[in-house]
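Minimal example, chain plus zinc ion.
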Amino acid sequence: MNTKRVCVDPELRKQLFTEIMHTGLNRGAVAVSPELLQHAARCPACSTEFEAWIEKADIGRILTSAREIVRRAGNGDPSVQRREGNGRRFYFGPVRTGTSVGTLVTTDEDDQIIQADEGSLEDFLRLQ
Ligand SMILES: [Zn+2]
């Protein structure tokens, strides 16, 4: 027996995936129209994959932002906070200058990214 769940409307599935990725990767947060959300809730295939798609979009956005912050820190950008300890470097780049939420990055001494996440300046000060 084939237990793979099949999407009830492949056209909506395509739109749903595209909208999650587009808003998640480019606009800072996943935003999906009500029609597509309804499909995601009701479709046996899409409902099981919805969370994983959002996670993928979030990871992609955070990683892009993390690379950008390490690059800016390397150029001496004063809006990027930086500290070091235990052979690691920690960076915090605010979403906008002056805000206390942003992207947290942990790298090794060669600035290779070890970890990246969204968080606050307080989270940054706790990184170790
Ligand atoms: Zn579907």
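Residues 7-9, 13, 39, 43, 45-46 surround zinc ion (CB under 6 Å). The chain has a mean pLDDT of 93.
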